[in-house]
Write a structure and sequence with these properties.
By secondary structure, the chain is of the alpha+beta class. The chain is built from 12 helices and 9 strands.
């Protein structure tokens, strides 16, 4: 297993530093001055100068790398650019070269040929690839779950049926595009218990509420259900949330849609229960972390 970041650290940075050290020396800077500018030791500069550091020829011959090194060399040597500004410029180029099909992406795929097993349409370095999109959703969800797990008192907000924090992909069409906690989040003797890591397609109920709200225009990509309490509704309203009631004894998707139609700005949906139905509050938000922060503010 090799990450693209390892390509950056092991091959890109030594190559760029070597080229940049040479540019600065050509412009009259001493080894000590080059070391200060690049934030490395004089012995490292000496190694670069004597060719004792292995560089990647493909990176060194890349036109954008050559152009940037020359630009940074001029700027750093004459004082028009600070080391921080140079760092930012290098970071920008790294991100550009990591995108699908570009140089660092190619080097990574050559180093890990197994990536091809994901199919011809798979591009791990494409920021819009399905895998990266899904991983961003799961990553946000994991951070949101950690916030809840570490929030003192969150267990008191978990209803008898359990809570679930869910998040969906940007073009979510059904529950398979919504990630949540398998088995839901439960209160076990006053402790928030998350039984397993989040997965896609494991939450039907909260996912249905989120998807229905989105289909009717709600600007939300995540949601959570907590126990119903009028005081909690009041606190959410004080936070600036618009609340809307729906009837869960009816078809949930239709009822949620009707509630959003009546209150397009609603970010909190609730139902007061019925025969065999526990009253619940649903908090919507742009991502899992935001939803978790909203709920944590209730404690």
């Amino acid at each position: 297993m090799k990450f693209v970041e390892e390509i950056v650290v092991d091959e890109f940075l030594p190559t760029v530093r070597s080229l940049l050290a040479g540019e600065l020396r050509e412009r009259g800077l001493t080894q000590s001055e080059v070391a200060t500018v690049l934030g490395i030791s004089q012995s490292a500069v000496s190694k670069y100068a004597h060719g004792d550091v292995t560089i990647n020829d493909r990176i060194a011959e890349e036109e954008r790398v050559i152009a940037l090194v020359e630009e940074l060399g001029d700027g750093l040597a004459n004082g028009d650019m600070t080391p921080v500004q140079a760092l930012i410029e290098i970071e920008v180029l790294i991100r550009e070269l990591e995108t699908g099909g570009d140089l660092l992406a190619q080097l990574h795929e050559e180093a890990v040929p197994e990536l091809a097993d994901h199919g011809s349409s798979f591009r791990i370095h494409d920021p819009e690839s399905e895998l990266r999109t899904s991983e961003r959703v799961l990553s946000s969800l994991r951070r949101g779950l950690r916030l809840l797990e570490n929030a003192s008192g969150f267990a008191t907000l978990i209803p008898a049926v359990g809570s679930n924090l869910v998040a969906c992909t940007p073009d979510a069409a059904d529950v398979d595009d919504v990630a949540g906690v398998p088995g839901r989040i439960f209160d076990v003797k006053g402790k928030t218990t998350i039984p397993s890591s989040p997965e896609f397609g494991v939450s039907e109920h909260v996912a249905t509420v989120l998807l229905s709200a989105r289909r009717h225009g709600a600007n939300a990509s995540a949601a959570i259900n907590i126990r119903y309490d009028r005081e909690l509704l009041g606190k959410l309203a004080e936070q600036g949330h618009v609340t809307a009631e729906f009837d869960e004894s009816d078809d949930v998707a239709s009822s949620v849609g009707a509630a959003i139609d009546d209150q397009p700005e609603a970010t909190v949906l609730y139902q007061t229960g019925g025969m065999g139905i526990e009253p619940l509050i649903y908090v919507l938000g742009p991502d899992a972390e935001s939803v978790a922060e909203t709920v944590r503010a209730l404690l």
